[in-house]
Amino acid sequence: MALLEVKNLKVYFPIKGGILGRTLGYVKAVDDISFSIEAGQTIGLVGESGSGKSTTGKAILGLERLAGGSIYFNGEDITRYIGKNRSAYRKSVQMIFQDVYSSLNPRKRVLDIIAEPLRNFEKLTKSEERKRVDELLRIVGMTPEVAAKYPFEFSGGQRQRIGVARAIALKPKLIVADEPVSALDLSVQAQVLNYLKDIQQEFKLAYLFISHDLGVVKHMCKTLAIMHNARFVEFGTSADIYSNPQHIYTRRLIAAIPDTDPDMREQNANNRALLTKEYEQDYSNYYGQGGKVYDLKFVNGSHFVAMP
Predict the structure, then answer these.
(1) What is the mean pLDDT of residues 52-68?
(2) Pick the CATH number of 36-62+82-228 from 3.40.50.300, 3.30.70.1400, 3.40.50.620, 3.40.50.720
(3) CA torsion angle for 99, 160, 103, 197 (degrees, to 10)?
């Protein structure tokens, strides 16, 4: 049984207009996607900005209203009470936010930031709470002394580690990591990613890892979902996606990964130009009317591609 199962998820945002503010239409941010996550598994959700990745993560957490679909956690349909603050689901699913600067309250000390979920869900004494916060700080490679400081006193990488400590405070089963390293330097990115992998092994966590960077996702995930125009264009193992990409959008994403070999520069540029030409000429083979992504079709094993 899957830890989390998402069926036909839809998130639509209304377009308002006129004097009375009537709904004239909808922006389909997420349009009928389905997937499941096993306990301890990491699934990468990849796509460009505006493809619907972050909205998917927020919908799973109850931060966006669903227009349709259902969400199952440990086999139980939790769609109706997904947004309730005190539910067991809220305790079991946490989030690491993309913006390390706005996700931490600048008026609160690190102690209060990390302890907030503990105060909401667990009845600890002051000494038990402080002991738990110190333990969480050590897990993410920080000393207990930093608990008295404020967010502005830390670098971006340190702030993100504080965010990770807050996310694991309640010992969740699933963490939605929304581009957790996109705002960090490369050296700091590697450090945070390694912490995430170590924490996953220690706590047996499952991750929904959202990113636009296929290079980062390759380091973290064995299963990938490629998202474009609010739908999945390709789904499979990392070997399927990197070694045998079928959809033109996936191939263009992979071609955009920087190559440090200067001898490959001209070849990579030519490859990108050929893919752009193919994308323009064969667009109808990959997208329907209005740019709608086709339904996923079985290719082999666990590999699925959006095809007519």
Answers:
(1) 93
(2) 3.40.50.300
(3) 90
* Backbone dihedral angles phi then psi of residue 282, each to the nearest 5 degrees: -110, 30
pLDDT in tens, 213-249: 888 888 899 999 999 999 999 999 999 999 999 999 9
Number of C-beta neighbours around residue 148 at 10 A: 10
Q: pTM to 2 decimals?
A: 0.91
Q: How many Å is the maximal CA-CA distance in the chain? A: 66
pLDDT in tens, 142-173: 999 999 999 999 988 899 999 999 999 999 99
Bridge-based pairing state of the strands 22-37 and 42-46? unpaired
The pLDDT of residue 86 is: 64
- 């706005």: which residue's tokens? 102
List C-alpha distances in Å: 95 to 19, 261, 274. 38, 36, 39
First to last CA, the chain: 31
Rounded to whole angstroms, how far apart are CA atoms 280 and 199? 44
| pLDDT given at position 292 | 92
From-to residues of CATH 3.40.50.300 in the chain:
36-62+82-228
- SS3 label, residue 98: coil
CA distances from 83 to 32, 43, 52, 226 (A): 20, 23, 19, 27
Q: Are 243 and 78 in contact (CB under 8 A)?
A: no
**Strands 93-96 and 174-178, sheet pairing:** parallel
Alpha-helical regions (H) of 16-143:
53-61, 88-92, 110-121, 126-139
